[in-house]
Amino acid sequence: MNPLEKQYRMLLWLAYPQAYLTQREEELVSTLLDAAKPGQRRPSGREAVDLVRSGMAVRNDMALGYLRPATTWAATLARVVLPALAALVVIVHGAGQPWTDPLPVLFLPFWATVALAPLLVPLVSARRGVASGVVAIVFIAGQITGANQVQVPGLTVLGLTILLALALLGPLRGRHRQLFLTTALGAAIGTAAGFRVLRILASPRYDAPRTRDMFATRSLLDLPESTTFQFVVLFVVIACVLMAPRIGLTVALLTPSILICAVTLVGNSFLFPASSRTAQMLVLAWIVALWALLTLTSLLAARRRQPVRRLA
Amino acid sequence: MNLLQTSVLSSLASGPRHGYGIVGDIEESTGGRVRSPVGSLYRILDALTRDGLIIEDRSEVVDGRNRRYYRLTPAGQASLLEAVAAMESVVATTRTRLAPRFGTATVATTIGGAR
């Protein structure tokens, strides 16, 4: 195998899904080598970009094609209904108490979505599962740190990195990889959530406001270390963008997200005081908007989705 | 149907071709004006196969390279004809609109004058 062929295969392996390569790799490599200029030693930039773009498009097609319409509907509905239910629970629960801050109610549907999304991983593509798992873990880590001053995020981020590296670079493929990720993420989230509940139960000052705190995001809003908050926001935005069903939408969402993140990250040191409510409100409002947009688009996409189609 | 898709169908109109055969034919017949990068080419081949416009003809191994040939289906021929008619009307309109500015001779050789 000459170096050029090796590099083409590497590119294909990175860009295209395994199932597609099983059918098409030899043919693609042959055509690429035939089309290479005499003496060419490495893929040109244009070729590489085109291959990566095409590979991503195939991945997208296959991820959507794997799902049967009924399953897609179930998964999408679950993403809408579960957060709504969770929000209802908190509203009913908090109805008797004066709310000093209305934001947690708004924010909760999103929180519930990302926390529950890993449960739906078998119904959704692996990439989305990973993204939502990442968010859920970081969120829970943020909650724990914010409320109890436990230094968990460092460990969580480290564990998560190892987990992702194992899943993406390890020998697992296809369904096995998905199963591994689901189990691992489920275990991590379960541990984190259990830890949180234990903390609250063990606390001597366990009272009504703390119960509310267990569900809502007061701790997240009032985080003393605003950097943790910024990282959480960053992860959420990245995950939202990864979960977007279309490339165009991804770009459209990514640009303002990066801008807002940059403004808050930089702004916290220059423009706003560290505890600026306005900056945090802005970010939270954008996240809620992102969530609503994604739910809406995936709902629309689910309606248009085709039944399973075999590739060539 | 876009230009690249039409070009792929057009190159199969003269008989079955493999991936590189299509790339080479498109580049040659359009004087290098239309180029098809390999990744995009296979996206188009997948889509056309899915829509039943082309079909796999045969596979050959030449010099250790795996070549799969594709050919047009009757449906593919029909939609190629339709696409070309649409393009021709665009070309004709454009030619008459640009003629006053550039002169009839220039317009005729520039538009649709690839061959």
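qc> The mean pLDDT of chain B is 87.
qc> done
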